[in-house]
Amino acid sequence: MEYFNNSSETDKQNFLPAELREKDEFVNGRPKFKEPFWIFGYGSLCWNPGFEYQQSVTGYVKGFSRRFWQGNTTHRGTDSKPGRVATLVEDKEGVTWGKAFLVAADDHSALPYLTNRECQLGGYRTYTVHFHPKSLYFPTNHSHTSNHLHSSTFPHSISQKDAVLYIAVPENRHWLGAAPLPEIAKQILECRGASGSNVEYLLRLADFMREEVPEALDEHLFSLERLVRKFACDMKICLQTLMVDNRVGPSQVREGQSQEEEKVSSLQFASRIPDKKLRCVNM
C-alpha cells in the first residue's frame, strides 16, 4: 500500500497516487491520464459514488477490516454531534468488500470531487491498493462465512487491479476511534448531517453487502445494524423516516452496461433497497 498526503493545498498533485500521476501533464490545472483508472469504495461510495464512471465491479481488498471509527461533521453529523462512518484498519487476515469504479482517462472531475468529499471534508487520505474482483474469491457453489481467511484462500490472478482508496487514520481531526458497539450504535442513531441521517449510511451499506456479497460476513457492520434496529424499536423510532434521500447525483453506468446504454442516477443505481427492509419499526 502506498500513501500520499493530500493535506497540503499548495501541492496540487499530492492527492494523486504515483501510479496515476503524470508529471507536467495537466489540462487546465487538472491531471491528465493515459489510461482509465479504478477507484475503490467501501462506504457510501458503494451506493452513492457521485461521479461518472465507465464500469463498476464488486470485489475486495486484503489486509484491512472495516470499522466505524471515523467521525463525520459534514455529511452524516455536525460539529456538536459528529456521526460515525467507515474507515479501514490494518488487519493481516482481513478482507473488506466494496465496489470499484472504472474512470475514464480523460475524466478531470472525479478525483478533485473525491478529494473534496473524502479528504478536505471527511478527513481521509489517499492510498493505492490491489483490488480483487468478487469472482476470484468465491469458487462456484462454494461460500465462505468469514471475512478473515488465510492468504492461501486467495488465488493469484492477473485480474487484480491497482485502485485509488481513501482511508482515515488516527492523526486526522475527525478521528473518534474504537468504542463499545452499543455506544457506536446509539451515536449513529442520534446523528444526521447535510447528506442525511447516520442511520441511512449504515443501513444502505449493510444492504449493499447483503445484495452484492451475501456469502460474506462483516461482523462489525452487521452487529451495528442489529443494535441500531433494536434501539430504534425500543425508542419507537421509524427507521423509514431516516432513509429519505432526495439528492440527485450525476448519471452513472450500470454494471455491465456500455457507455452508450441508458444511464441512471446514483439514487436509482445504488439505492435499490426492498420495501421490507425499510419497514417502520414503531411497534
From TrEMBL:
<keyword id="KW-0456">Lyase</keyword>
<dbReference type="InterPro" id="IPR006840">
    <property type="entry name" value="ChaC"/>
</dbReference>
<comment type="similarity">
    <text>Belongs to the gamma-glutamylcyclotransferase family. ChaC subfamily.</text>
</comment>
<dbReference type="InterPro" id="IPR013024">
    <property type="entry name" value="GGCT-like"/>
</dbReference>
<dbReference type="InterPro" id="IPR036568">
    <property type="entry name" value="GGCT-like_sf"/>
</dbReference>
<protein>
    <recommendedName>
        <fullName>glutathione-specific gamma-glutamylcyclotransferase</fullName>
        <ecNumber>4.3.2.7</ecNumber>
    </recommendedName>
</protein>
<dbReference type="GO" id="GO:0006751">
    <property type="term" value="P:glutathione catabolic process"/>
</dbReference>
<dbReference type="Pfam" id="PF04752">
    <property type="entry name" value="ChaC"/>
</dbReference>
<dbReference type="GO" id="GO:0061928">
    <property type="term" value="F:glutathione specific gamma-glutamylcyclotransferase activity"/>
</dbReference>
<dbReference type="GO" id="GO:0005737">
    <property type="term" value="C:cytoplasm"/>
</dbReference>
